[in-house]
Structure formats: C-alpha cells, structure tokens
Design brief:
five-stranded parallel sheet; about 25% strand; four-stranded antiparallel sheet
Length: about 220
C-alpha cells in the first residue's frame, strides 16, 4: 500500500510520555496519517502502543510534544483539547459495550441530537458494518465478531476524523478476524477516516497498513 501525499489528518510530533520523571515509556514518537490511511503500531508488550492511542484520544497527557488533527492543535505545551471535542473515535480490546443495552442503544450512546434521528443513524451504522439484523439484541446474545462490529458502529456515531483501534480484533478465529478486519478498514478508508491500529500480529499489520510503525521498549536506568 502507498501513503497519500495530501496534508495529514493526524499529526503526532516528538511525543514523550512517562509515568515517572526520568523514566520515559517512549520518547520522540512522530506519526503523519493521511485521510483514509491506516498506520499500524507494533512493538513488545510494555513499549507504549496503547498509551500512544490514549494520548491521541486525550485520555492521557504527554510530557512533551504536539498532536494535531486537521491542523487543529489538540495537545502541546499550552493547549489540551478534551477527549469529547477531538473528533477521535477509539475501540478498545474489551470493546466496552453496555451489557444491559441493545446494540442500537449502544450505538446511540455516542450520537447527539433528537432521539428519533439518533436511533435512525444508529440503525444505519449497524447496517453499514453488517449487523443491521442484530439491532435489538444485547451484546450477550451476539457473537464475538458481531460485538466488534457494534463497537465500530458506536465509534463511528460521532463522525470521527480519526479512528484508533487497540487490539480490536483480538480473540477472533483467524478467518473471521480477517473478514471483520477487512470490512472495518474498507468502511474507514471509504469514509476518509485516518486510522491507527495497535496489534501484536505482524502479518496483520503488513496486510492492512499503509505504514507500520515499530515502537521499541526503552531501557530503564
């Protein structure tokens, strides 16, 4: 796959993060993700892949560096845009679906506006991701692949500019994983959404990503 030469949607510049002073989890990380592109993060456990997604989403603050989305500064030395105003969707490995709500109610959670319009949009998103017939069923009555599609639909609800996926396909049988993954990234690419995938699977990264970024584990001194 080839990267776009257009202005990046997501730009991460020289980001550094550590839980304790003088003990960086990672330092100097930079990314440029264009519209409709997929970048995959690879690296050993504990190198900060998931933490980098949390920094982009605004769930953590970097020690230094700059993060921009469509040229809007989200984070730098003096600016911090809160998560709900970033235009960034995120899907965690555990998906975080509400077990006592139907699929359509889960998707509606991220959609603002009148309830009737939100419900109609949620149903349409479920149809787009391939689980329209499961709209009224709770997560406990869905397969693993269906639950992941519902989580993607919920993340699409607020119309994000950037989508972050943290081991979002983990635990699926290989053929199902490939099918769900290909459908999801087909949707994200078609909508021009810049995406960052955290995965431990090097073959998966090479199969879906325009660029693979390898994060090393920093030595602790």
């Amino acid at each position: 796959m080839t990267s776009s030469s257009t202005q990046p949607v997501l730009r991460v510049r020289d980001v550094r993060f550590g839980y304790a002073r003088g003990h960086d989890l990672f330092a100097g990380v930079s990314l440029d993700v264009g519209r409709g592109e997929v970048h995959a993060l690879l690296g050993p456990s504990g190198c900060g892949k998931s933490t980098l997604l949390r920094l982009i989403a605004g769930l953590e603050r970097p020690a230094s560096g700059r993060i921009e989305c469509d040229s809007q500064v989200l984070t730098d030395g003096g600016t911090f845009v809160p998560p709900h105003r970033r235009g960034v969707g995120i899907v965690f490995q555990d998906l975080g679906l509400f077990p006592d709500r139907s699929a359509v109610s889960n998707v509606m959670f991220g959609i603002s506006g009148p309830r009737r319009a939100a419900r109609a949009r949620a149903k349409e998103l479920l149809r787009v991701v391939g689980v329209g017939d499961a709209a009224n069923r709770p997560p406990g009555q869905l397969s693993g692949g269906q639950r992941r599609r519902v989580a993607i639909a919920r993340a699409l609800g607020p119309e994000p500019r950037v989508m972050l996926l943290d081991e979002a396909f983990e635990g699926l049988e290989s053929d199902l994983r490939r099918a769900v993954r290909n459908d999801v990234f087909g949707i994200l690419r078609s909508r021009g959404i810049a995406s960052v995938l955290v995965t431990h699977d090097e073959q998966e990264a090479e199969a879906v990503a325009d660029r693979v970024v390898r994060l090393p584990r920093l030595s602790r001194t």
